[in-house]
Design a protein that fits this description.
The structure is a single chain. The protein is α/β, with parallel strands linked by helices. Helix content is about 40%, strand content about 10%. Strands 1-3-4-2 form a four-stranded mixed sheet, with no helix packed on it. It starts with a strand and ends with a helix. The relative contact order is 0.18.
Length: about 120
């Protein structure tokens, strides 16, 4: 994860589990979610083909620290830590997939057909 603050720019590897502790906001100037089935499949194939004994790195995700003056005006449930500048398609896709898998785990669903998983991932 990197910051776009020029005085504090750096690349810092974070695990997906680490990212669960952060709250992101996608600024209004960012495009909406546009990934198609092909993009999701490419991401999942890339992850599946990665070496199991080595970390898998997404392309850099660029963030900017939240403006404290803005945060002070927001209700607690709307507060965030970072504006997500680049990487929102990847992070949103991973969020959707992990949320769906978490729901299946809570429901104790152990037998998901590839077709059902594909429908979930592609938001059918």
């Amino acid at each position: 994860m990197s910051s776009d603050n020029s005085s504090n720019s750096r690349l810092e590897p974070k695990s997906i589990a680490d990212l669960k502790t952060y709250r992101f906001r996608i600024p209004s100037y960012q495009r909406g979610y546009r990934w198609e089935k092909l993009h999701v499949e490419q991401l999942l194939d890339d992850i599946a083909e990665s070496k199991p004994d080595a970390p898998y790195y997404l392309q850099p995700v660029v963030v900017a620290p939240a403006d404290p003056a803005l945060i002070a005006t927001l209700p607690q449930e709307e507060q965030f830590d970072y504006d997500l500048i680049d990487g929102q398609q990847r992070l949103t896709t991973l969020y959707i997939i992990l949320t769906a898998l978490s729901h299946f785990k809570q429901l104790a669903v152990t037998d998901i057909s590839p077709e059902d998983l594909e429908d979930i991932i592609t938001l059918k």
